[in-house]
Amino acid sequence: MRAEPLELSLYGRDAGVDVGEAAAVCFPATADQVIQAVRVAARHDRAFVARGSGTGLAGGATPVGRPLVIVTTHLNQVLEVDQDQRLAWVEPGVFNLDLSRAVQHLGLHYAPDPSSQQACTIGGNVATNAGGPHCLAYGVTAAHVLALDVVLADGSVAHLGGVEPDQPGYDLRGCFVGSEGTMGLATRIAVRLTPNPPAVRTLLLDFTSIEDAAATVSGVIAAGVVPAALEMMDAEITRAVEDFVGAGYPRDAAAVLLVELDGLEHGVEAQVEAVRTVGLEHRARTVRVAADESERALLWKGRKSAFGAIARIAPDYYLHDAVVPRTRLVDVLRQVYAIAAEQRLTMMNVFHAGDGNLHPLIVFDAREPGIWTRVHAAGDAILQACVDAGGVLSGEHGIGLEKREAMPMVFDAADLDAQARLRDAFDPSGRANPDKILPRGSRCGELAVVPEGAWI
Amino acid sequence: MDLDLLAAEREVAAAVAAADVVDPVGSRIHREVGGPPPVGTEVRAPAGVVAYDPAELTVTVGAGTTVGELTAVLGEAGQECALDPRDPSSTIGGTLACGLSGWRRLRYGPLRDRVLEVRFANADGQLVRGGGPTVKNVTGYDMPRLLVGSLGTLGVLTRVILRCQPRPPEVRWGRTDEPPDAVRARCFRPSAVLWDGVTTSVLLEGHPDDVEQQRGEAGVEPLEAPPRLPDGEHRGRASVPPAQIGALGRALGALGNVRWLAESGVGTVHIACDEEGGLAAARRVAESTGGWLLREAGAPGLDGFGVGLPNAQLMTRIKHGFDPRGKFAPGRLPFALDAREAAST
Ligand SMILES: Cc1cc2nc3c(=O)[nH]c(=O)nc-3n(C[C@H](O)[C@H](O)[C@@H](O)COP(=O)(O)OP(=O)(O)OC[C@H]3O[C@@H](n4cnc5c(N)ncnc54)[C@H](O)[C@@H]3O)c2cc1C
Ligand SMILES: Cc1cc2nc3c(=O)[nH]c(=O)nc-3n(C[C@H](O)[C@H](O)[C@H](O)COP(=O)(O)OP(=O)(O)OC[C@H]3O[C@@H](n4cnc5c(N)ncnc54)[C@H](O)[C@@H]3O)c2cc1C
User: Interface pTM (ipTM) of the complex?
Assistant: First the structure.
C-alpha cells in the first residue's frame, strides 16, 4: 500500500487525457490480497479502481473521488496451460503479448492482439473487451474468455462462466467482459488459445485515392473473403511510418491497405487472388504479397509502429475510437478530413478498416494556446458524424470517463436505465470504479442534476 | 418496412405493459424449457428480415422471424448465420432466448457471439435497445449477452441484429474410428468433431482442395449425411469440461441404456433414452465429471437444470432489477418464480 505524492500522481490517470486523484495505491500479489484490499475499501465506504497497465485511453482507470487504486501488475502468472483443450488460466496482470509468447512453442497463440499488446494486461483487455487487427476474423476479447474469478465490491468472490460450454441462467461472464472495472475486479481468467494457422499471406495494396482504398475494403468482404486482418493507413501516417521504420510503404500513396489472409494453403491462395482482383478493380497501384516471413514482419512493423512514428511529429496526440458500418467508411472519412480542416488540425488515420473501426488521430502541441478547445471540438464533431452514419461511440477503447457524457447520443433514457440496473445488480454499493461508462442521471428517477458541492 | 417493424414492436411493448403475466412465445417448439410454461398473456415478436446488406455482414430481423426464413434470405447472397437449431421453424427470438448453440460451435463459437444488437420490451412496456449495429462495439454494457439464454425472463425480444458470414464453398462430413482428440489435432479448424464412443464424425468446411487434403491427412472416409442426434422420448444435453468427454463417454457406455453423441472440443453431449431413469443416471454421470445435464424433453420427473444456478444471488438481483413484479415467464428459471412470489406477498 502506497500513498506517496509521486505514486498518487503516477496513478492519477491512464494513457488518456483525464486526470483524477487516488487516495492510495496498492499492489496485491495474490487474489486474497485483492479481496482484503476491496474489503478494507468497503469498510471505509470508499470506492476502488482496478488498474492494469494504464494503457487505456478513455480514462477507465482514472481514479474519480479519491478511491483506492488496485494495481494488478504483480498478479502476473500464467497459472495453467492445457494444450489439448486449448485454454489457459492466467492472472489478470499478465501482459497480452507475454501470454502468446508463453504458448508459442505449442503452436498456439492468444488471438486478440491490441496494438498495445506489449504493454497492456489481460485483465485490462477483459475489462475493455479489447480488439486488435486479427479480431476481424477471430473475434474480440469477449469471444476468447471462458471463465473468470471476480472480486465483487462487497469483497465476495464470484466465479463467472466456466470451461464447460454452457451454464444455466444468465451469461454473467458476458456481462462482465467490457464492464471496465465497474462490476468488480477479475483475479483469475480462463482464456481460449488459438492454433497458429498453417498458411499466412500478408498483402500491401496502395492507392492514389482514399475512396478507392475504402471501397476495396467493402469489395473484399462482399466477395466472400473475411481476411484475418484488414488495416488501413492514410497518406500522412503512411509517410510518417515510412520515415520512421522504412517498411517499404510507398511514400506517395493516398492510402495503403494491409491485408492478412490465413488458414489452409488452397483457400489462402484463392483469397489472395480474390483480394488482388478486387484491389485492381478499384485502381490499386500495386498489390504486393510479402515473399517471406521477414518481409511480412516488416510490413506489420510499419503498422504497429504508427504510434511511435507520431511521437516524432508532434509532442501530443489525441486518439479517437469510433465505429461506423463498413459501407459508410468513405463518406465518414471525408467528413473527418473536413472537420480537421475546419479546426486547423493535423489529422491522421490508421485503423481497423475491416471492422469499420476508425481511429482518427489528432496530432498537436499542447503548449499552443487554445489548442485543446479545437481538439475537443473536432473530437465531438467526429463522434457526431460517426453516430449519424449509424455507428457507435467506441469499438475497443471503451467509454470510461472520456465518453460517458456522449452515451445519450446513442442510447435513450430507457436503454441507459437498463444498463444502470445491470450495473447495480453486480455492485449495489456503487463502489466499483464509480462514474465510468454511464452518465449521471442514467437511472430513471435519479437526480439528473449534480448537487452543489459534489466532488465531480 | 423498418417503420412497420417499429410499429409492430410498439404493439408488443403495449401488450407487455397491459399484461399481468407475460409468456413470450416463438414457434412453441420448446415451451417447457426450464420449467412449466407460464399461464399468462402470450406475446409474440414481429417477424421479417428488415435490413440486410451483404457487404456489411450484418442482418436486422424481427425476433419472430424463423431461422428457416433467415437462412433463405442470406443464402441468396451466399451468406449464412451459424444458428443451427434442429428445427428451422424455430424463431430467432426463441433460439436466442434458449441460448443453445448449434453443433458448428467448435469453429464458429457459441450463439451469443453472433448477436450484435437486441431490442426488447421491458416490464414497463418500454422498448430497450442494447449493443449496437456494428461488428465491433464497446459502447456500454453487453446487453445482448444478457438476453441470450435468459429464457424470456427479462423481456420480450422484438428486434435483433446478427452477424453473418460468407458460406464456405465446400461443406463435407467424414468419418473414422480414430479417437476424436487425435482427429481434432490433425485438422485445422474443423467445424464439428462428433463422437459416439465408436465412430468419430468430422465436419470440414472451406476451399474444396483444402477440405480434400484435410480429409486425407485426418484419414476420414466420406460420410453422405451428418450423424443423427440421438433420439428418444427422454432427452438431455450435458455440458462438461471438454477434457472430460472421454471419461463421460465411457461412463455413459457402461450405463447401457442411453444413446449419446458428444461434441469433442466443446464439451456438449447429446443424450437420449427410452426410460426416464436413464436420463437421471446420465445426469449423475455428467455431474461426476464436473458438469451438469439440462433436460430437453420427456423425463417429467426430472428437474430442468438439476443444479442450483451458479451465482443465484447475482442473477436474482438482475431479475429483480429488470422485472421487479415478476411479470416475465414466472417459473422459467428458479428465481423467476421466487420473484413473483416475493412480489405477491
Ligand atoms: C432445454 C432445451 C432443449 C432444447 N432442445 C432442442 C432440440 O432438441 N432441438 C432443437 O432444435 N432445439 C432445441 N433447443 C433450442 C430451441 O429449441 C430452439 O432454439 C427453438 O425451439 C426455440 O424457438 P421457438 O421459436 O419455438 O421458441 P419457443 O419454444 O416458443 O420458446 C422457447 C423459449 O424462448 C422464449 N422466447 C420465445 N420467443 C421469445 C422472444 N421473442 N423474446 C424472449 N423470449 C422468447 C420462450 O419464453 C421460451 O422460454 C433446446 C433449447 C432448450 C433450452
Ligand atoms: C498506443 C496504444 C494503442 C492501443 N491499441 C489498442 C488496440 O488496438 N485495441 C484495443 O482494444 N485497445 C487499444 N489500446 C487501449 C488499451 O491498450 C486497451 O484498452 C487495454 O485493454 C487496456 O489494458 P490495461 O492493462 O492497460 O488496462 P488499464 O488502462 O489499466 O485499465 C483499463 C480498464 O480496465 C479496468 N481493469 C483493469 N484491470 C482490471 C481487472 N483485473 N478487473 C477488472 N477491471 C480491470 C480498469 O478499471 C479500466 O476501466 C491502445 C492503447 C494505446 C496507448
Answer: 0.95
